[in-house]
Design goal:
181 residues, alpha+beta, Metal Binding Protein, Guanine Nucleotide Exchange Factor, Chain A, eight-stranded mixed sheet, three-stranded antiparallel sheet, 3 helices, 17% helix, 29% strand, globular, binds zinc ion
């Protein structure tokens, strides 16, 4: 049986699990948008590390299952062109980043800072926006991981995303935080 990890929002109303097949990539992103997303939800304490990094687990959406509380999912975009940034409406816990359509199978699950069971950080990216100096590494590995898993998902026909309906629309309408950026 494939290895899985269970995650939940802060209040426990929303729970999900992720399979480790295909192999995910564990990284920290320090970009200002990831910081803005977590701070907008008021979760800097717990979801940003001391240098402002967000821990992510990149995989394919079909590796993800909501066990309970999928109806709590909410969606924001920092700008009208921004990534889809999902969170739990029950307690404003950041959940995941996706593209704006399910066409390419990609999800970056947001992990609590220092979450155990996901192995060491394989990459730290966008470190120019870190609060204190952090050495950039592994950027190419994340890109290759995304392509490798995406290709496998296409080849095996595994593509179903819990974030989109059959017509390819997000399951809830996105709220745009700032039109003007
Ligand atoms: Zn919650
Ligand atoms: Zn980022």
């Amino acid at each position: 049986m494939t290895e899985t990890r269970k995650l939940q929002c802060k209040c426990g109303e929303t729970q999900w699990k992720v399979e480790f097949t295909p192999r995910p990539t564990h990284l920290a992103c320090y970009c200002s948008d990831c910081q803005a997303y977590v701070n907008h939800l008021g979760q800097g304490d717990g979801y940003l590390n001391a240098a402002g990094g967000t821990e992510l687990l990149q995989t394919v959406p079909s590796a993800l299952r909501f066990i309970r509380g999928a109806e709590n999912l909410r969606l924001l975009r920092l700008t009208s062109k921004g990534l889809f940034r999902w969170y739990s409406g029950c307690c404003n816990t950041p959940v995941a980043n996706t593209l704006k359509s399910p066409g390419f199978p990609f999800v970056g699950l947001v992990l609590p800072s220092g979450a155990e069971g996901f192995g060491p950080l394989e990459a730290e990216v966008m470190t120019k926006s870190a609060k204190v100096p952090v050495k950039e590494h592994g950027f190419n590995a994340t890109g290759f991981g995304i392509l490798r898993r995406g290709l496998m998902a296409k080849l095996t026909g595994r593509g179903r995303s819990p974030f989109f309906d059959d017509a390819g629309k997000p399951i809830v309408a996105p709220m745009i935080v700032s039109e003007g950026r």
